[in-house]
Amino acid sequence: MRWFILVLLFFGAVINFADKSIIGLAAVPIMEEFDLSYAEWGLVGSSYYWLYPVTGILGAAWADRLGAKKVLGLVMLTWTVLQFGVLAIAALPLLIIYRILLGAFEGPFSPVAYSHADKWFPAKQKGLANSVIVGGGTVGAMIVAPLLVSLIAIFGWKIAFALLGVASLVWFFLFQFFTKENPVKAYNKVQEKKKKKLEKINVKDFLKLLGSPTALFTTLAYFSTYILVVWFSVWLPIYLVESVQMSSAQMGYGVAIIGVVSVLIYTCVSMLSDYLFKKNQNWRVSRVFVVGGAMITGSVLMASIIFVQNPIWVIIAMCLAKGLTYSILPIGPTIMINEMSERGGLMTSILTSSGNIAGIVAPLLTGYIISLAGGDKVAGYNLSVLFMAILVGAFGLLFAIFVKPSLAKENKEDKKRNLSENRSLKYS
């Protein structure tokens, strides 16, 4: 059951990020149809994230109480309605409203998915499980790019968006009718106890926890990396066409190659982290140093494309940079859940929603930087890349220095989970 659920969460992330990234892949026809400037296109990219952080926290907190199945089912049905609603878009204001609503209802998916996977997998497999979910995001954002580009070319961008709505509907039925909420047989009793605990949260202590070096610098590292996530989603297709001089078809395959290789890289980093944790039970070595080192190395590789403009090196460097810097995405939620395991959904939602604040800033900032360069688009893109590289490298270093997860909490939680898993072994 746990692996089937993980597969569905993977495909849910595929749909989630395909919904995000298809707007970038359709940038050229959309900008031409509505006669948009770069600043207006930056507004479209940013609008997706205006409500995303808030609804991510609210949706995940709701999932802690009512269960992941109900929340994920609701958001998936809403995605379906919104993607079909694209057929009625006829002007920029409607396009922005659509992106705001889509972002609002897609906000809860990632934190709820991480928290749901956390219920089903032991500590020694959490990195792998989360990397599979993150991998679904990369597949949706980049690997399926050639398919999405083909759909846009054949049917037009509106029909392509509507087909993603069909995928959401299929996922909804599979998840609702073929999965369970919790691996523990006595789920109802466990859930009642959890509800009582949720009502007794101490706000002062909770805020103090969020301000601790571990929570703060994990969130900032996630935030910095998410600026890169948004850039890859909104600006990479245009960058490869306008700066690297690729055709639309070459751009699609280039995006897919970057996606495939990066998934392999950050999955390997997560597996290395899990392996080291299994061997030494040391959070600093297995989680923090591995991820911090990967982020710093990835930022250097990202900056290198400013100095080496060869298209082949650009693709290679982006593959490595994306794979290494993205390692915080699967490991970050594990660290946050460890700090307050009974509020797993809420903790991951704060992490992902705080990171997604970058989604509000990044598209507008990139569009502004490109505009500052005047007619020299290459210089504008290079400045945006340098900014991201410095930001990710700096916060990767701070993450490595200041994040010190509580080993005692993890050991105590592992014992509880092992007892729970032994009781529910046949069921699972």
**Which strand-content bin applies to the residues?**
under 5%
What count of structural domains?
A: 1
Q: Provide mean pLDDT, rounded.
A: 82
- From the spread of the alpha carbons, the general shape counts as globular
How far apart are the first and last residues' alpha carbons, in Å?
A: 6 Å
Low-confidence stretches: 185-196, 408-413, 417-428
**CATH fold name:** Growth Hormone, Chain: A
String of helices and strands: HHHHHHHHHHHHHHHHHHHHH
CATH architecture: Up-down Bundle
Based on secondary structure, the structural category is: mainly alpha
**H/I helix tally:** 21
**What name goes with the CATH superfamily?**
MFS general substrate transporter like domains
Determine the fraction of residues in helical runs and give it as a percent range. Answer: over 70%
Please outline the major beta sheet. none
Please provide the count of β strands.
0
Quickly name the level 1 CATH class: Mainly Alpha
Rg over CA atoms:
21 Å
